[in-house]
């Protein structure tokens, strides 16, 4: 089996050594040994780090991500949690789209005061109503 030195993992993932040590400390990844003082990792560690990065990008906490790996380090992804997170992301996208439209309108509106602009007032009502729901 090919062994990856911590420097190779750093180079291939873009993570800092301190991040890798922290991930190991909290059980997200495991080193398979040392060469001198340098940690050594199995090639599957790269896949695990990719999944950790994806999970963080999706808004999962490191504790939640840790629960997505089995004892053998292989992913055991809870589909219901993934569906719920995808739904949350869809809502965020919707909210951010409304915000983007409001900001673009404010930036381009020719009204003397944005508070006098009917379209801006409508956008404010939509945002207010959407936040309550």
Automatic annotation (TrEMBL):
SUPFAM superfamilies for the chain: Putative DNA-binding domain
Which InterPro entries does its entry note?
A: DNA-bd_dom_put_sf, MerR-type_HTH_dom, MerR_fam
**Under the GO molecular function aspect, what terms does this record hold?**
DNA binding; DNA-binding transcription factor activity
Q: Does the keyword DNA-binding apply?
A: yes
- Residue ranges occupied by any HTH merR-type domain in the UniProt entry: 3-71
Domain of life of the organism encoding this protein: Bacteria
Q: Which UniProt keywords apply?
A: DNA-binding
Keyword DNA-binding applies: yes
Which PANTHER family does the annotation name? Answer: MERR FAMILY REGULATORY PROTEIN, REDOX-CYCLING DRUG-SENSING TRANSCRIPTIONAL ACTIVATOR SOXR
According to UniProt, the name of this protein is: MerR family transcriptional regulator
| Organism, scientific name | Kiloniella spongiae
């Amino acid at each position: 089996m090919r062994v990856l030195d911590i420097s190779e993992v750093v180079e291939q993932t873009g993570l800092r050594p301190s991040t890798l040590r922290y991930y190991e400390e909290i059980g997200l990844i495991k080193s398979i040994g040392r060469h001198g003082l340098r940690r050594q990792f199995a090639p599957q560690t790269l896949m695990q780090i990719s999944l950790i990065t994806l999970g963080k990008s999706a808004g999962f906490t490191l504790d939640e991500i840790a629960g997505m790996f089995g004892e053998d380090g292989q992913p055991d992804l809870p589909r219901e949690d993934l569906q719920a997170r995808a739904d949350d992301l869809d809502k965020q996208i919707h909210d951010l789209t409304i915000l983007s439209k409001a900001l673009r309108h404010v930036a381009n509106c020719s009204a003397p005061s944005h508070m006098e602009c009917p379209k801006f007032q409508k956008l404010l009502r939509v945002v207010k109503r959407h936040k309550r729901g």
